[in-house]
Amino acid sequence: MSAVTLLCADHPLPLYDPGIRRTRTVRAVTVEEDGFSVQPHTYYRYAVEELGLAMKPCRYELNLCPTEEEAALLRAYLAQNCAPGETVELWQLWVGDGPGKPTRFSGPLSALDGPALEQLEERPMGQSCLTIRI
């Protein structure tokens, strides 16, 4: 099974890659990887469609870690590209083992922080959706 994080909206959003790099330590080894970005949904696109979940039509892959810094980047991106009152969805999807019933959360853009992003990942091997009101 593999995981993919999606940003879903009712209208097209611009792609975004500020070239940020992040570092993390895995078993005493420090690795550097790409940081926050909004990219076209290509990774496991067919498998996501096979899940049959009701999602907003414009879908983008997010490279996103549940940190305060990356939550701030996502808040700024959404504030710049979405209208007040609009909603978007953040999906944490596990593909390869059937759809399962998604766990859904919702809240305002101002409440989008590291712990809110962690909540998406708390359900291992399950589908989670955070609906954000701009």
Topology diagram in text:
Elements lengths: L1 E8 L11 E6 L2 E6 L2 E4 L4 H6 L7 E6 L4 H14 L5 E9 L7 E6 L5 H8 L6 E6 L1
Parallel strand pairs: 7-8
Antiparallel strand pairs: 1-5, 1-6, 2-3, 4-5, 6-8
Description of the structure:
- Strand 7, helix 3 and strand 8 (128-133) form a beta-alpha-beta unit.
- It contains three helices and eight strands, in the order E-E-E-E-H-E-H-E-E-H-E.
- The strands form two sheets. It has a six-stranded mixed β-sheet with strand order 4-5-1-6-8-7, covered by helices on one side. A two-stranded antiparallel ribbon has the order 2-3.
- The chain has helices at residues 45-50, 68-81, 114-121; strands at residues 2-9, 21-26, 29-34, 37-40, 58-63, 87-95, 103-108, 128-133.
- It has 134 residues and is α+β, with helices and mostly antiparallel strands.
- The relative contact order is 0.24.
Index terms:
single chain, 134 residues, alpha+beta, 6-stranded mixed sheet, two-stranded antiparallel ribbon, 3 helices, 8 strands, 21% helix, 38% strand, globular
